[in-house]
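User: Structure please.
Assistant: Input sequence and predicted structure:
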Amino acid sequence: MTEFLDDIRAGGIWLPDWLASAVIFAAVISVGLFAHRILFRLLTRFVESKDLFWRSLVSRLKRVVRLAMLAAALSFGATVSPLTEYQSATVRHFLLIFFIILVAWMAKTAKHIWMTVYLRQFKLDAEDNLLARKHVTQTRIMERVINLLIVVIAISACMMTFDAVRQYGVSLLASAGVAGIVVGLALQPVLKNLFAGIQLAITQPIRIDDALLVEGEWGRVEEITSTYVVLQLWDWRRLILPLSYFIENPFQNWTRESSALIGTVMIYLDYSVPVDVVRGKVEEIAKASTLWDRRVVNVAVTDFRETVMEIRVLVSASNSNRTFDLRCEVREKLIDFIRREYPEALPRMRAVMSEAPARDRRQAAE
């Protein structure tokens, strides 16, 4: 390019430096756009027979790669153009930072596409979604951690393009001990939740869509961020808890190993009620219900009280919502049956009046 300019000037054609630079930049931009078009035509044909990830990646990165190729072309143009050394260095430095940001953008896009394609094979609305909840939880937590790493690495790379940072980097690190301790203490809650999020992703005491009993509230895990967990309660309220809570405090996870649950119905009846009849009615109710998963139905007398006996009914369903609805259905139909067929078996308060005190009261009245 410089030889071309020298030939022009030798031939008597003189161009100002700014015009010559503009011509060079226009030329390299044209070459960059042409090269980008050829490259993506080849890539599009190459990935036609590939899986969804590669096709999506080429499609989503088209504009970003165009900008990266233009940045590389302009950097070359700034090198060969008749700019001053300071101007050329400034332009190339700016383009280098821009290129680093574009690379981080590409990495973030590739990560997002891969995780989206990966999660398509798992359905949270399935009957038994234990495996889906496991992978979705791990993926979303790791996605946030990877995003943070990409941002940190990109910022570090941009800073390292400055000579002052490279030259004094060692001394800055050596003198940052006390400042690091102060910052670490100030950011202790944030770092605590960040490491708790990584621990949750690995050990998985909770997952997306898990049914939890926390602080006396029942709800489902709606979202897990890098610092907190959102629980959607049964009445649509939201309970927000820090990630560290689930590492440091006990809680109930109703769907830790499976989505299926056993529901309990307690009823208190008189000793005169035939338990076998109650057991048969509960089995009839369960078999007629579309909520029952055909696994567990049981009736047992679990305690004797002074006036009633305690009967426990167990029924199972495929998930916590269906279990709750099945328990309500069993309660309604069982009490309706007992009220119609054995009304005397319902709990009553009994009182026995002695005849002697009554006779004494009649005599006193006479």
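The longest strand covers residues 292-304.
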